[in-house]
Amino acid sequence: MLSIQDLHARVDERPILNGLSLDVNPGEVHAIMGPNGSGKSTLANVLAGRDGYEVTSGSVTYVGKDLLDMAPEERAREGVFLAFQYPVEIPGVNNAYLLKAALNAVRTHRGEAELDAFEFLAVVKEKMGLMHMDESFLNRGVNEGFSGGEKKRNEILQMAVLEPRLAVLDETDSGLDIDALKVVAAGVNSLRSPDRAIILVTHYQRLLDYIEPDFVHVLSGGKIVRTGDKTLALELEERGYDWVQEAANA
Amino acid sequence: MSSAIQKSKRPGRREAALDAFSAAWSDLGAGNDAATALRRAGFEAFTGTGLPTTRDEAWKYTSLRKLARHAFRPAGPAEAPSPKQVAAVSVDGLDAACIVFLNGRLEPGLSDLTNMDGIIARPMASYLDDHESSDAHPIGTVAAIGQHPFVALNQAFLRDGIVIRTVPGRAHDRSVYLLFLSVPGGEPVAAHPRVFVDATDGSQLTVVEHYVGFGNTANLTNAVTEISLGPAARVDHYRLQEETANTFHIGGLHAKLLRDAQLATHNVHLGGTLARLDIGIHLLDSGAETVMNGLYCVDGRRHVDNQTRVDHFAPHTLSNEVYRGIVGDHGRAVFNGKAIVHPDAQKIEAHQSNDNLLLSPEAEIDTKPELEIYADDVKCSHGATVGQLDADALFYLLSRGIAPDIAHDLLTFAFAEIVAKRMPLAAFRRRLERHLAGVLADDRLIQENLGAER
Ligand SMILES: Nc1ncnc2c1ncn2[C@@H]1O[C@H](COP(=O)(O)OP(=O)(O)OP(=O)(O)O)[C@@H](O)[C@H]1O
Ligand SMILES: [Mg+2]
Predict the structure, then answer these.
(1) Whole-number percent of chain B with pLDDT over 70
(2) How much is the ipTM here?
């Protein structure tokens, strides 16, 4: 589904990704861990197509297409979803409006009919129930005044509504209390299916207790330096990153 | 009266507009009545200064050169638009007594002065006819001719407009909707309507002033509104400026507030080639409060200038101003907001903000919030910003599949919505939001949510 080959990217002239390669197949869950500043969010942003992230070499193929050639909104319509590490507040843009516009953009792209207000509300209310979110959030500005945890939950709500093929969750677990973590994990798990793939960026093994990954990767210095199964996360929790980096440098 | 102004009037550089004003004024005729005295004082004050130039501090960023080239004729009888045409431009869904003015003159055929909930509403001309001396009526006591040449000019032609008086102690549920239509009169026409609102003790009233044009003549609207608020009176004043693309729009909104009076002004500029509004509010007694909301959208080669001034004369007074502007193309916007805290005006609050969205590199914004404080126990804040659409927010929307042009419009809308939602009159806000939503407007959900009461 996603094939990243020897990806080099820079921000403000500064190289951040230095030969990153990663293959993700449908149905798989990949966890990416790594020290602060190692390039995890940069990877997520490059995949989503943010301005200012310059790919200097390498390739990214998504369902057989050149992902890097697509505008951000095309990627989203093709089923790529990024749950932001720091979701932005957009006062004045109604949460419901954004959700509906986003869903209909995706549906139109897939050749499906747009949902009217009633059909849309039915879909959204069901997903909000799943996320234990009060319906009053619909009529607030996008993330406006949301607590840290509520913002993360709202990201997963959007994901649940849009049903992407490839979801990249950038530290969605950070800042969540135990109950919220379970709710978010349930939201993610409900989306797991043989034709979807999920990339989880996280610092904590705890999340992986709830969302079991098929692979765990360590990103360091802008490339993946080690790949293992879920036991690697436990080992990292115990021993930190130094030994991985040392092993990689050796 | 600065020497700069005198210079601009030296022989050989007389402006067509000035000549036309003088000629029209001479044609007015004179009597011994109060109106004549006011008109004379207005004319003398105006000819003493002439049209302001950019050498005047208050007009530094707004040139009247284009306006001065037009020989505006006095507004004569004009062909009235049909009720259907009027309905098409009016604000929908207002529960209001609608009073229509054609080039400044009250048009009885299109107005409804019957169902006014006890409010006294009288055409300015007949009101003035009933008063022989200017001591007997308050016209001209709130808007000062000395500081504002266009107030003087308006007073020089004092005749059109309306006087409104509320019922003491009554909260009038029904609004008063003053619809000013600028209609073609062959040559450019000047209208000088004057509105006087006498908000008596403890009464409450919502007034909506709406300036709209037909056709594309280069008319001048020079409107002055005076609002006098008695103790504990409350006025919500809405002003929607939607003149046609060639119209010059100059306005003054002046108010005096006594003890515990409240005035909210909601000032929206969407039209005109050149628009300028001076707002002057005097908080004369403790407990007086004013909220000032403003929004201007400036595109094409249009120019919009807002000058607001609040004088805190008494302790325990409050002013809160939020102005936002969206300026694109070759548009130019000017904002100057002054709050003056006079000596002894302790324990006051004065807050002010002006934020601008600059949508094109050719657009220009000059913003200057000013605080002058002569008391020591006060809470004041002010700030001005000029910025572009937030790149993070834009990317967030794109990453959800929203098309770039929609994302752009949505964020522009959101920027304006911060002010729009401070305007409680639902029908007015809806009208504004529809305008702002533009391409987004046909989506039912946005309208339903936007239209809902907040
Ligand atoms: N816009 C930018 N300008 C300059 N440097 C940037 C920019 N964005 C990211 N960087 C730098 O790139 C490096 C990688 O950042 P990135 O956000 O990808 O790290 P991360 O692995 O997600 O870290 P964390 O675990 O703290 O979220 C950091 O050193 C960061 O300072
Ligand atoms: Mg990060």
Answers:
(1) 92
(2) 0.96
